[in-house]
Amino acid sequence: LILQALRTIVETAGYQQANFFQYDEDRKLFALLESSEQEHPAEIKEILTFRLGEERGLIGVVGESRQALIIPDTKDEPRWVPTDETLRSALFVPVFRENRLLGVVSIVSAQTDAFSEEDARNITVLANNLAIAIENIQLFERVTKSEARYRGIFEGVQDAIFVESPDGNILDINERACQIFGYSREEFLTKKVSDLLPPDGEALLPDRPGGRDIPNHPIETVNLRANGEKFPVEISGRVNNVGDEDVLLVVLRDISDRVKAQQELQESETRFRLLAEFTHDWEYWIDPQGEYIYTSPSCEAITGYSADEFIAKPEFLFEIVHPNYQEKVIAHYHDQVNKLQPEFSMIFPILNRDGDQIWLEHHCRPIFNQAGDFLGRRGNNRNITARVRAEEGVQRQLKRLAALHTIDRAINSSTGLEVILNVLLRQTLEQLEVDAADILLYNKNLLTLSFAAGQGFQTSALKYTRLRLGEGLAGRAVFEQKTVVIPDLAEVEEKFARSQEFKNEKFRSYFVVPLIAKGQIKGALEIFHRSRLNPDSEWLGFLETLAGQAAIGLSEIELFEGLEKANFEINFAYDSTLAGWAYALELRDRETEGHSRRVVDLTLRLAQAMGIKGDALVHTRRGALLHDIGKMGLSDKILLKPGPLTDEEWVLMKKHPVYAYKLLSPISYLNKALDIPYCHHEKWDGSGYPRGLKGTQIPLSARIFAVVDVWDALRTDRVYRKAWSKEKTLDYIRAESGKHFDPKVVDAFLKMIEEM
Ligand code: C2E
Ligand code: SIN
Ligand code: SIN
Ligand code: FE
Ligand code: FE
User: Fold this and answer.
1) Helices (H), 610-680
2) In the β-sheet with 219-224, what is the strand arrangement from edge to edge?
3) Among residues 233, 446, 482, 535, which is most buried (max CB within 10 A)?
């Protein structure tokens, strides 16, 4: 895809060549992406491998800066790696999504000055599209991975399973099929179903209405192994609709052993018993009147009822057939027996002694002696519960994969948050067979989860949900980044305090999965059910797959929604709160009134004069505003003491930067503003506190602030001394240059004061 896009650029714009250097996040290396038809020799590949930030070549530079770069003339560019003298100008564009670097596109031309700013903008748009495409491919790989999870079921079965197209191509087989037939997986996938049948095989298959439509109950036929040996099999199958396509799911069992056993059984009852007792199957023999002659002890393992219980009551087996199937099973049985069918089989569920549903596969055939007298019927019942469950599992898997593709399509078509969330919720309700579900979105500035979309609710109980991180079950699940499973809400202490109306929904089970994409919290998926749910690991696995897709969907969408604006408003609200704190401190520390505002103004001027800009300036501002917030932790006795502090009082006073750190560091929004509150009493010569940092170990913003703070402190009255004059204060600051203060900051400060 990438190479195709680059080829198109080269062809339409007439450039020399375009390359993609793919970024390997673990190794921090860029490697040239090559097409299979055109591979470079190893030495060239080595030269064309760049490290993030590396100054050799420009790939690492552009990857690090994430800015497009135009080289008008490669001969004037010392960092250029000349692999080909004819390449005279170049354009490099980074490819990234959110914070994730995926690679760098380089386009080179034989002319100098071939690239304009306009070209750079166009290729940047292309790079963004490429990034989206790459992410989608990775999403597809995730979906394929979830397919691998279900493969376990497919492979765990004792029978061969085939997935076939309607025209008889083999699309997929399990390992057991390879063992039974003696073909490798690769050989199988080149075969057609007809290759597995002996020359007269088709004729042996009973009538199949609808072509390859094999009946759901098993039929016996003959197949060929790879070595040409014919062997008896029993097959059943059904058509599944996956997306727009029909596929045939065929289950095949090698019954050589059973057929052989039954042939041998005909020879003697003793051998019959012996063999019967060696198999897990429940073998039995009934006389022409329908009374048991013999039933093997396995009946107890399968049904929980003893052989004696069956022998005492010939109709007993029918009595334990699952009530929904009873009538049909009895009718079918009598029908077959009356017709004196040589052999027949059926599959039906019974309820064992514990009331659990067990699926039996029943075979039965009439027995005649040499003289042709009817001796009764022999049969066997096999417990195929595991296989039936597995088949159900495979079908569920196919449906769930189709569901994932549906969601994927919704995400890719970028139809907007609401549509995507509703597609996702609909699939959640259908595939997980639950009553209701909703999605809560995480606001990383307000640290809240709020309701975004829901389905299956009868009231508007949850519509106004707004939880703080860590609050309630959902808030906790997100905070701890783990799924919370509550099979019965009545059994937990914690009530759904979100809404009075909630109890009218009569929900019993509750699940909440945090939505996390690329390590970032996006929200939560909540599932509600009105009866008790006891999900298996497969169900939970699929729930997590859905959640993973929801999280990806949400991170896609963020790019399109105007979150920027909301962020601005929230930052504004935050900053008023910060100013409020600073003011509260000034109220306590009476004499220093206006100190915060003044130091903020001076600090920002000095910081700008020293080249700080952009975001860093915002953090500097907040840090200066809050610089002494840690003094909130001191008693009035110390804070307002008119005279000098005692040694013990100094120990406490020197803790105020640490208090500030403890107070502010849990607030992720203020993390980058911590430098000033934490480090404003460090000194250039290392004699400051709390950590005794030295020189440039002290963050620049804190070095700048220190000068301003001392200036303003000395220029104003303190409880412990009167204000100093301007000259005395400037002399003091000059004298402390290189001791308390960074000399460069002092120079800039003196220059600034002069100009004021
Ligand atoms: P503050 O009043 O905001 O002072 C900030 C910094 O300005 C001081 O940090 C110090 O570097 C400088 N500074 C302030 N006043 C003077 C002064 O009279 N002479 C000199 N040479 N420098 C001065 P420092 O020393 O780490 O003090 C931190 C905080 O401890 C001060 O914040 C103040 O709240 C308190 N403090 C300092 N000395 C005394 C004192 O003698 N009595 C009382 N009650 N508190 C004091
Ligand atoms: C480089 O020299 O930085 C890479 C040139 C190229 O695109 O081959
Ligand atoms: C019965 O007659 O009770 C059972 C016989 C059979 O399943 O073949
Ligand atoms: Fe301080
Ligand atoms: Fe201060």
Assistant:
1) 615-625, 636-639, 647-653, 656-664, 675-679
2) 170-173, 160-164, 245-254, 230-242, 219-224
3) 233
Match 């980074």 to its residue by tokens: 94
Please report, to the nearest 10 degrees, the dihedral formed by the alpha carbons of residues 78, 81, 85, 89 taken in order. -70
For residue 185, give both structure tokens. 């997986």
Segments in 51-105 forming alpha helices (H): 59-65
- The SS3 call for residue 19 is strand
Ligand nearest to the CA of 602: 5
Dump pLDDT digits (tens) for 557-614: 654 444 443 444 445 445 555 666 666 666 666 556 678 888 988 999 999 999 998 8
CA gap 693, 682 in Å, rounded: 6
- Look at ligand 2, atom 6, and give the residue with the nearest C-alpha: 106
Q: How far apart are CA 411 and CA 419, in angstroms?
A: 9
Torsion angle, alpha carbons of 679, 684, 688, 693, to 10: 60
Q: Do 83 and 108 form a contact (C-beta atoms < 8 A)?
A: no
**Cα–Cα dist 235/223, whole Å:** 10
Q: How far is the CA of 97 from the centre of ligand 2 (A)?
A: 22
pLDDT tens-digit series, residues 332-347: 888 877 776 667 788 8
Non-local CB neighbours of 678 within 8 Å, separated by 6+ positions: 657, 658, 660, 661, 690, 702
The tally of CA atoms less than 13 A away on the side-chain side of residue 428 is 32
